[in-house]
Amino acid sequence: MFVESIFNQKITMRHEALSITNMSLSEIEEICVSLNEERYHARQICSWIYKHGAYSFEEMTNIPKSLRSLLHEKYSLFQSKIETVVKDVDGTEKFLIHLHDDNIIESVLIRDKQRITACLSSQVGCASACGFCASGLHGLVRNLQAGEIVEQLVHMKNSLPGGESVSNVVLMGIGEPLANYDNVLKAIRIINADWGLGIGARKITVSTIGLIKGIKRLATEGLQVNLSISLHAPNDIIRNLIVPINKGTGIRNILLASHEYFEKTGREVTFEYLLIDGVNSSTENAKELAEKLKNYQCNINVIPLNPVPEFTYKPPSEKKIEAFCAVLKKAGLNVNLRRKKGSGINAACGQLRLEFGKRACSAGWHGGATRPVDGSCLSVPSLIL
After folding, report:
1. Residue 349: active-site member
2. Residue 380 has what pLDDT?
3. Candidate list 32, 119, 325, 349, residue with the active-site label
4. Measured in Å, how far apart are the chain's first and last C-alpha atoms?
5. 42, 61, 248, 320 - which has most CB atoms within 10 Å?
6. Considering the entire predicted model, what is its pTM?
């Protein structure tokens, strides 16, 4: 069961280069100075956006009206808006975000006891083409700008009722974060900054399919962010099958890079392992995985597959899941079994975006300016092939 809400945010969207959310504090300060205004107004602007939820310059009442007028004339606050929110009975919410160029991305708000986690996308589509993920079914369209990543969190933060706040951020949505390194890093710094969203680095997780250069580069940034690696297999034969990009990488090199990350940051790496029945979920697979990871200080998140209709893969039985985890625990590894969230709202990466693309196609609409006014379908030009 779920509730679907169509939002009608009154946001004027422009090209990403003109969006304030795409800028660091120093860049906003330079804008203020260039407009013959005081530098300190930059922090006020940021406070209105990230602390007070302002969606227009006019709301920024402690800033001179002359500056507000100039900012409105030359810049926009946002380059995206909420199109639809779908809510599951377990508290999970999936946001479809409409970008300035009519592409659509997903963000997910996940509630787990006292923790509220925002899962953000880093690209429109994905080039990794993993054999179980809807995100890469139609390839990569483009990278997201830093502001487009940040805005996902701002939209979700502003939608929360009083008394609730986002506690954790994971870059685990659509796309490969380390393939969009510069924009992702800039977004993380805005999310982490005291003048930004103020979320601690240790509450931020970057998830990667295993891009070695990106892992090594992230280790040198001086950030205490968490690194999560989508391993999904105990050997290269299986991983090459379900994660094609592995053919140019290999598990051995991924493990070496993860160890380097731990050595330089002191942060334990988490390995994500998606259980797929008949592919990587046997006790023999578990024993091989345990042997691979026995000398690494790490965490393992075991996740039963969230099925996608476009793929034939299925999750294993509960008995097989328990047996797999038991082998890892017996080997002394730190194992967390992650139960599915949001199964009623197509919560696996890319599923809801794909479903809305199908709706748009079946409605006979192919993007552009003549979108149906009732919100029955969305602009997803990247999905209309």
Report:
1. yes
2. 27
3. 349
4. 30
5. 42
6. 0.87
